[in-house]
Amino acid sequence: MAVVFTFDETFDGLLSCIFRSYSDKIVPERVCSENNLQGDFTVEFVNIKTNPAEAERVRKGIIKTASWRAYYLAYTAFMSDLEDIYTSVFNFIRLSFEYKKNVLNLLKNDSVLAVEKGSYRATHEADKLKGFLRFRELEGGIMYSEIEPCCNILEILAHHFADRFPLMPFVIKDVKRGLSAAYNGDIILTELPLENIPEISHDEEEYQKLWRQFVDSVNIKERKNPKCQRTMMPKKYWKHMLETQPDTKKRGV
After folding, report:
1. Which tens digits make up the pLDDT trace of 159-198?
2. pLDDT at residue 251, as a whole number
3. Residues of 230-247 as b/e, b for ≥16 C-beta within 10 angstroms?
4. Do the beta carbons of residue 149 and residue 141 sit within 8 Å?
5. Residue-by-residue DSSP string for the chain
6. Is the confidence at residue 127, as pLDDT, over 50?
7. Three-point CA angle 121, 126, 132, nearest 5°
8. What is the chain's alpha carbon radius of gyration, rounded to the nearest angstrom?
9. pLDDT tens across 191-219, in order?
10. Cβ neighbours of residue 221 under 8 Å, at least 6 residues apart?
């Protein structure tokens, strides 16, 4: 009977699956979320609990045996939300232990190709949102932003802005997935709903007015090119960008 590993959809959880695979000498047919199981009497589902110590051993092993690049590809591809990406990343990591630094040369391997594609998809969207994400100051001095990315890249963005603004407390909420990243010296990822968001501060209202005036002043009507604008700034991000909203929002939500 084929074996399917299930886990909690965290990257450490997937690394724990790798550890179990080697320790128990089991190569699962698939790896999938424990929250999205479908009844199948032809397979045996084995739930793997996340073990941070085991995950860390696998993480260090990938970097030492293959390369930091191989680890980064696996980590970012995991966030891409592509179909069956968990299985592809799992297979890729096992290949990295077998082929070591040559794993990235296996360009005809389906798992390697899927990981390359997934990593590009996630990092490409993260790079765009580093520029399109808009913070607004709430009462109390907390910076707040909402996003709805195609990929699950909240952690990448949280680390980026924490490095860029180390003294600025902020919250980034992934509305699509119900996840939030809060930073105030340390990054905390949580699924808890953020309720009773404070109103924007008085200073923020003034900043929003100035920003709108600036955007209007540099917008030359005679040179307006909607097609080019949508190419450079995809419309799927407009919902949470101040300059594309008709009215200033009075709340942080």
Report:
1. 999 999 999 999 999 999 889 999 999 999 988 666 677 7
2. 42
3. eeebeeebeebeeeeeee
4. no
5. -EEEEEE-SSHHHHHHHHHHHHHTT---SEEEETTS----TTEEEEE----HHHHHHHHHHHHHHT-HHHHHHHHHHTTS--TTHHHHHHHHHHHHHHHGGGGGG-TT-HHHHHHHHHHHHHHHHHHHHHHH---EEBTTS-EEEEE--SS--HHHHHHHHHHH-TT--EEEEETTTTEEEEESSSEEEE-S---SPPBBPHHHHHHHHHHHHHHHHH--GGG--HHHHHHHS-GGGGGG-GGG-SS--SB--
6. yes
7. 125
8. 21
9. 866 667 778 888 888 888 888 888 888 87
10. none
AA letter at 209: K
Question: How is residue 91 written in tokens?
Answer: 């297979």
